[in-house]
Design brief:
heterodimer; A: mainly alpha; 6 helices; 67% helix; disordered C terminus; B: mainly alpha; two-stranded antiparallel ribbon; NADH-quinone oxidoreductase subunit H (chain B); NAD (chain B)
């Protein structure tokens, strides 16, 4: 357990460092993904299997979508040329250093409370109750609203895609291809 | 931690996966062994300034994702890894295929593979939500995310019978997930083979093995999720699992040339406007029945 944790911790930090060292957008994206996956596997280690699997699932999808968008908005064609991954080096270093010192000192200096209670037999079940129990109505409404928004935006975006209308329109048959 | 599984599953899983992968390749290409031999002696193709590391990760990642997705599937009665969130694990591993294809397409630094990689991301965004809802429907019907519990819940009636919409959507998304047949546009002939167009030799061999393994795993996952797992008269559970997996795999292989190619933007519209509502209604019905 401890060995696995330290390996994962090193992978997570090394992945995070690699994001700023490599010179390609694709490598930076996947270095970040490797770092996040190490965090996901750490959750599996502490028996939070649902959260662990979910983190892996979401991070892979998320980083892939992010890779598409990042490369789409970059100045050089498709991002295939090597490029620096850091801008405003001094400012970024100062901000990052300050935040790290604040967080680290907080973690070291805080008096952590004694543990009360024991882990539940089924953490997935307990998690579901904690999130959904009293807030079921809110979660349902928000869930449906988010889904409706996503579907509506996709419908509007695919109305006329790159290759013409997604669905053949007989009235405009002669137009384009 | 997940409960310990018998040692024989360590041997049985690779044997079963290898056999189905080989069978799928044999049915698809006719003479897989001669193709393997040819690819083994073929030279790698060099492109200008490839990102070799990312290509290697992508090509190997496809097979790795397929193998890892399959370890939660019951081999008869017990899986190699009896994870209590097996359905989520299967889903997470199968999404890693997105990364594998995009990396392979990106890394070789050539236009058709790049287009193919992006096509698969678009296709993934289209199939993934209906696919997730279909998986959740099976989990809801069983009241558990563990694959063996899902099998147990189908003792009386297979989920394919009383959740036909979810089963149908699963089969469609299985085609899309394994970029197979009508959904194989990421490897489309119009972009000279797409993701695979610059792969040769050992890379193409490994990619091909990964693809057939993925197809076998998505076919095999339909068995515990919707077809009652190893349940069946007279024969032992593992024989039924093999027979059912072979049947689903045969349907998928057969479907390859039976349907026209699907463009991913049209699939997106059909998927989000038809398949998502269908799966949501199915989910609602199953929810009402279960409660």
């Amino acid at each position: 357990m401890a060995v696995a944790f330290w390996i994962l911790a090193v992978v997570a930090v090394a992945g995070g460092v690699a994001v700023f060292v490599v010179d390609s957008m694709a490598r930076a994206t996947f270095a970040l993904l490797a770092s996040l996956l190490a965090v996901g596997v750490t959750f599996l280690l502490i028996d939070l299997r649902y959260l662990g699997a979910l983190i892996i699932l979401m991070m892979v999808m998320e980083m892939l979508v992010m890779a598409v968008f990042m490369i789409m908005y970059m100045m050089n064609p498709a991002g295939l040329m090597p490029m620096k991954m850091v801008h405003n080096k001094t400012g970024a270093a100062v901000i990052a250093g300050t935040v790290f010192v604040l967080l680290a000192s907080g973690a070291v200096l805080t008096r952590w409370p004694e543990r009360r209670g024991t882990p539940p037999a089924d953490p997935t079940h307990a998690l579901g109750l904690a999130i959904m129990g009293p807030k079921m109505l809110v979660m349902m409404v928000i869930g449906v609203a988010i889904l409706a928004t996503m579907i509506a935006s996709v419908v509007m975006a695919t109305h006329r895609g790159r290759y013409g209308s997604a669905m053949p329109d007989r009235r405009r048959d002669g137009e384009g291809s | 931690m997940p409960e310990l599984t018998p040692v024989w599953t360590l041997v049985a899983y690779p044997v079963a996966l290898g056999a189905f992968t080989f069978a799928a390749a044999a049915f698809d290409t006719g003479r897989p062994l001669s193709r393997v031999a040819r690819l083994l002696v073929q030279q790698r193709r060099r492109t200008l300034l490839p990102d070799t590391l990312l290509v290697r990760v992508g090509v190997a990642g496809l097979l790795a994702a397929a193998v890892l997705a399959g370890i939660v599937l019951p081999l008869g009665d017990v899986p190699l890894l009896g994870l209590d969130v097996g359905i989520v694990w299967f889903n997470a591993m199968e999404v890693c295929v997105w990364g594998a294809l995009w990396l392979t397409g990106w890394g070789v630094n050539s236009v058709p593979p790049l287009v193919g990689g992006y096509r698969f991301i678009a296709q993934g965004l289209a199939y993934e939500l209906p696919h997730m809802f279909a998986l959740i429907t099976a989990g809801l019907g069983a009241g558990s995310l563990r694959m063996t519990d899902v099998v147990q819940a189908q003792q009386g009636l297979w989920f394919a019978v009383w959740m036909p919409a979810a089963f149908g959507v699963y089969l469609v998304s299985a085609l899309a997930m394994a970029f197979w047949g009508p959904m194989s546009q990421p490897l489309g002939a119009d972009i000279a083979g797409g993701v695979t167009s610059e792969l040769a030799g050992a890379d193409r061999l490994l990619f091909g093995i990964g693809r057939y393994a993925l197809l076998s795993v998505v076919a095999a996952a339909a068995v515990p999720l919707f077809l009652g797992g190893g349940a069946g008269p007279w024969l032992p559970a593992w024989v039924w699992t093999v027979l059912k997996t072979a049947a689903v795999l045969a349907v998928l292989v057969w479907a390859r040339h039976r349907f026209p190619a699907v463009r991913m933007d049209r699939f997106m519209q059909a998927s989000w406007l038809v398949l998502i509502p269908v799966t949501l209604v199915q989910l609602l019905i199953v929810g009402i029945v279960v409660v």
